[in-house]
Amino acid sequence: MAVTMSARQLALKRREAWGIRALVMVDMSGSGGSGAATHEGPGPHGRCYRCAGTTRRMQAHAQHPNLWLVDHPLIQHKLSVLRERTTPSSDFRRLLGEIAGLMTYEVSRRFETEPIEIHTPMERMLARRLRCAPTLVPVLRAGLGMTDGILALFTEARVGHIGIRRDERTARPEEYYLRLPPDVQDGPVLVVDPMLATGGSAARAVDEVKRTGARDISVVCLVVVPEGLAAMQAAHPDVRVYAAALDRCLNERFFICPGLGDAGDRCFGT
């Protein structure tokens, strides 16, 4: 006697043929089956077909253990416009902030929360809020362009500033300004700078933040290169670097290639 498959069974067959683990298990007991569904999580391609979204969690880069790439399609789209040499300063500034804001979702994943009792219009409930507001430490000048995008999500965040210029001959960092909140060590700290080139400026900024007693520190960049990641790994192996792109290398002038040029000059039109 011929056996006819239900629409659900046919769909499962197709998914298995595509090499994707089925997320809905059909109870075949009884004549028609109960149709009970069980959520098993994402298949091998990181797709959860019941949730219709990408559920793949970020992981450290295979070659660079301190790098965490935030490779969302929208971020990559905006980064491509930001890199384009004809993009005017006004658009560059806007995109810099937008990309930083989009990256914040993943960067803040490890922030600690604590329970709090709130009153909804219906009843009291136990909710969760951030245990401590983060502190942003933009590296002047270019880091300022990322700050507003992050502050749009963390309006309660404090902002410190560190001024570090790079000697164009030696590529060594030179600090000229430092101002941090007095309780910066009480919560997470995000050191923000669009580029991690030699890694000298970022390492110097983390040095200063650690002198306050802060330990929960991350560096947030748009583009990085292996040379800068290696320098950060050697100086601060406990610090994660979040980036939107891993570029190829530094050139003879210590600029990132393909990079995005001088982020400070492009951001402020200088």
Question: What secondary-structure arrangement, pairings included, does this model have?
Answer:
Blueprint: H1 7-17, E1 47-48, E2 53-54, E3 67-69, H2 73-83, H3 89-107, E4 113-119, E5 124-130, E6 135-140, H4 144-151, E7 158-159, E8 161-166, E9 173-179, E10 189-192, E11 195-196, H5 200-210, E12 217-220, E13 223-224, H6 226-235, E14 240-243, E15 245-246, E16 249-250, E17 256-257, H7 263-268
Parallel strand pairs: 3-14, 6-7, 6-8, 6-10, 10-12, 11-13, 12-14, 13-15
Antiparallel strand pairs: 1-2, 4-5, 8-9, 16-17
Which structural class do the helices and strands define?
alpha/beta
Shape: globular
Give the CA-CA distance, first to last residue.
Answer: 80 Å
Total beta strands: 17
